[in-house]
Amino acid sequence: MHMSDALLSPAVGGAMLAVSAGAIALAVKKTAGLHLDNAAAGGQTEFGQTSFASKIPLMGVMGAFIFAGQMINFTIPGTGSSGHIGGGVLLAAVLGAWPALITLASVLLIQCLFFADGGLLAYGCNVFNMGVTSCLLAYTFIYKPITRNSVNQKTITLGSILAVVAGLQVGAFCVTLETAVSGITELPFGLFVLAMQPIHLAIGLVEGIVTAVVLCYIHTVRPGLLVEALENRPETAIPSRFTLKKVIISIAILAVITAAGLSLFASAYPDGLEWSMERTAGTAELEREGAVYDAAAGVVEKTAFMPDYGFKSASPDGGGAAGTASAGLVGSLITVVFIAALGFAIYALRRKRKTA
After folding, report:
1. CA-to-CA distance for 201 and 184, rounded, in angstroms?
2. Which partner for 60 in 119, 254, 290, 340 could form a disulfide, CB atoms 3.0-4.6 Å apart?
3. Planar angle of CA 100, 180, 297, nearest 5 degrees
4. 3-state SS track over 252-296
5. Which pLDDT belongs to residue 60?
6. In the chain, what is the straight-line distance between the N-terminal and C-terminal CA atoms, in Å?
């Protein structure tokens, strides 16, 4: 559901950039402040570090897994459409709502700048539609109430499916609203809504099941992680089969398999947004002219070294399977490094201010 710049007016794109920047800034403050408070209260992990510092690698590998997962479009039977996971609820259930928003916003920025997936002007909309709606709204008001009193496979599955579906429905509606306010006449609001909501309901059901499977696995090997995210405090003394280090390694392996292997089997059908645009406007490619659009496109053209997840200088298919696998691995690695660097920078800055 990555929006392109052509779906927005500069005013709407700029306003949503400001809104999402504010949400990310608040997420940084909440994340660092929360975990430093926990550290001051004596919260330690098996790594001998404070809770936030020990979870930064987890943020990195979870971000890499979501990056890789978003490369895999799954077919929606009988529609000629496809979808991919957004990952917001999954991230929030493992990391907590605020760290999840930072992680997903990082993934979307890397996709935009290095792989030309989603426009730079549309970045704020994409963060809001895919991140704020799922990490802050769906997780907080649907998943948490369902699982708060009893974290087990049944509540995890129910909470995951309902939260993902709700978050995706709100996000899809936001897309139609943003295009309407932008005055995109090719996409009449009523017709666009009638196309967007049903197809993203189907996509949400599939993502909800995927989310539930991953969370049930994590609950089996390290249940304290999910409890910590729910209660905003260091892990309780819940018996675990895996150490946190083993959980991180297992997710990293899953990310590599997804990026380099499963991504090769992605559906060739248009995703839910493109499919809805084709049914509404007759095309999934809209064009806009103007200095703002040219400037945003110019930045991405210079920074995107693997546009459309393929080799830039290769054939029109970006190098085929080799290009896709390489993009998945490179993107996942960049995601880990970027999020880890960002996390430790936040940690160091907040720790310095705390002791000043």
Report:
1. 24
2. 340
3. 65
4. HHHHHHHHHCHHHHCCCCCEHHHHHHHHHHCCCCCCCCCHHHHHH
5. 97
6. 43
Q: Tokens 């991919």, residue?
A: 84
Q: Which fold has domain 5-355?
A: Arp2/3 complex 21 kDa subunit ARPC3 (1.10.1760)
pLDDT value at residue 241: 87
Q: Is 76 helix (H, G, I), strand (E, B) or coil?
A: strand
How far apart, in whole angstroms, are the C-alpha atoms of residue 62 and residue 47? Answer: 19
38 — pLDDT class (breaks 50, 70, 90)? very low
Spell out the residues 6+ positions from residue 80 whose beta carbon is closer than 8 angstroms to its own. 269, 270, 275
Q: pLDDT, tens digit, for every residue of 88-106? A: 999 999 999 999 999 999 9
Secondary structure of 4-57 as H, E, C letters: CHHHCCHHHHHHHHHHHHHHHHHHHHHHHHHHHHHHHCCCCCCCCCCHHHHHHH
The answer to whether the CB of 270 falls within 8 A of the CB of 82 is: yes
Q: List the structure tokens of 100.
A: 């999840």
Whole-number Å distance between alpha carbons of 262 and 68:
9
Give the tens place of pLDDT for each residue, 242-288: 888 999 999 999 999 999 999 989 999 999 999 999 999 999 999 99
Measured from the Cβ of residue 317, the count of other Cβ atoms closer than 10 Å reads: 12
- What separation in angstroms does the CA of 307 have from each of 195, 318, 337? 28, 8, 20
Give the dihedral of Cα atoms 249, 226, 153, 90; nearest 10 deg. Answer: -70
User: Which residues are CB-neighbours of 212 under 8 A, at least 6 positions away?
Assistant: 156, 157, 160, 161
Q: Who's near 272: CB < 8 A, 6+ residues apart?
A: 1, 76, 81, 82, 83, 172, 196, 199, 200, 203
CA dihedral 16, 162, 88, 182 (to 10 degrees): -20
Q: Where in the chain does DSSP place strands (E)?
A: 74-76, 81-83
* Domain residue limits, the chain: 5-355
